[in-house]
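Give me the 3D structure for DNA polymerase III subunit delta.
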Amino acid sequence: MSKAPVGPPESDRFDDAPHPRETLALFGHAAAERELLDAYKRNRLAQAWIIGGPEGVGKATLAWRVARFLLAHPDPAAPEVQAAETLAVPETHPAARRVATMALADIFLLRRQWNEKTKKHFTEIRVDDVREITRAFHQGSGMGGWRVAIIDSADDLNRNAANALLKLIEEPPERSLFLLVAHQPGRILPTIRSRCRKLMLGALTQDETVAAVAALGPESGGKADIAAAAARAEGSVRETLRLLGGDAMLFDTTVNRLLQSLPRVDWLGVHMLADKLTGRDNEASYETFMRALERHLDARVKTLSQGGAPPARLIGYARAWDDIRDLARETEVFNFDKKAMVLGVFDRLAKAEGN
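Predicted structure for DNA polymerase III subunit delta (355 residues):
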């Protein structure tokens, strides 16, 4: 794997894995890539796109792939564009090198910034972050071509930041493109959604997941370990990488055991689990817990729906899901006690299962 650059950690990079801007290969999503390329060839590329889908399936990789292609080929009518079958740009192309090193005057990245006081990332994309991008965006394009803004992720925009971004999308310079990476597109401000073309990416197949992780480098793990992690990751490269770290697989198994026992709650096990999630050094365990929880919630709602559960139970479980998301969000934003959050999650889920 490539090493993260010297300086503050990047909120849109997973540990020391290659950043999406450094990742030239795209696994899966051929139809989505073709839709973007065909729109560009016809000179009908929508000004703003929401690239939605589960976390870790390649949304940011696709966004950077688009930006790299436009930087390399600013004229959609050029013969090489019309002949192109994918958005691939060779690693040796100057555009690929400029994107990888962030030596850019016309591609802008909006993401959660590093807080020097807390030595952690801000929990949201703030309005000042959007204003800084807006000022730079309205300056002349460094190459006289496209201006591309990548928002990774739009889920992180707070209300004021979202409104500031809306104004930029409504009044952009010519030849501007906005690519909004979104894990939950439905939570994006409706006025922003109405101005974007939506492109939804599905989960990768297990084979695609294994191939994508293996392509990151030998440090990502052995073939058997990658396959075992990918089998649990539900088509997410990021989740596969997370499960390959330390004792994450064992921890994930523990979380799933506790969730599967609901509505009966093993409170001793839950307390032991919660103790592992407290403290500054346990961010990876907390993220593993949240991803396992999301997978469980998603699977339960699908199972209940397909099994013909009465609407009242589905509504109750959906409300529980919303309550848990809000609880988790408040815990992260206000730095509340994670142990109390975990106990509240199991209490809320037990009630939903018991109805």
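Strands lie at 48-52, 107-110, 114-115, 120-121, 147-152, 176-182, 197-200. Let me know if you want a second pass.
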